[in-house]
């Protein structure tokens, strides 16, 4: 017999993401919230301690929670 039989690997790597990774929660103006939020229209960021306002830059009413890192200032170029 020429050659050997080669078995294909049973390991499969999926490049698809789960639905959880794709989920983005939107927060409307007027909602009780605490943290940093980013305007869905213009990207303006606000830090909120009680109620989400309308965006002061573009007037949008929808926000999403902004990515936050305690090292964000340290990583920013000076």
SSE order and pairing:
Layout: H1 19-22, E1 26-28, E2 35-39, E3 45-48, E4 62-65, H2 72-75
Antiparallel strand pairs: 1-4, 2-3, 2-4
Q: How would you characterize this protein structure?
A:
This protein has a four-stranded antiparallel beta sheet with strand order 1-4-2-3, with no helix packed on it. A hairpin with a 5-residue loop joins strand 2 (35-39) and strand 3. It has a domain at 25-68. The termini are far apart. It has 78 residues and is of the alpha+beta class. The chain has two helices and four strands; from the N terminus they run H-E-E-E-E-H. It is globular. 10% of the residues lie in helices and 21% in strands.
State the assembly state of the protein chains: single chain
| Biggest sheet character | 4 strands, antiparallel
Tally of helical runs: 2
The succession of helices and strands, N to C, reads: HEEEEH
User: Which residues form runs of ≥5 with pLDDT under 50?
Assistant: 6-18
Shape: globular
Number of strands: 4
Helix content: 10-25%
Structural class: alpha+beta
């Amino acid at each position: 017999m020429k050659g050997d039989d080669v078995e294909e690997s049973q390991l499969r790597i999926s490049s698809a993401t789960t639905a959880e990774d794709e989920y983005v929660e939107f927060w409307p103006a007027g909602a009780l919230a605490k943290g940093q939020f980013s305007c869905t229209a213009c990207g303006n960021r606000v830090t909120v301690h009680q109620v989400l306002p309308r965006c002061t830059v573009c007037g949008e009413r929808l926000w999403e929670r902004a990515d936050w890192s305690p090292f964000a200032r340290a990583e920013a170029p000076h």
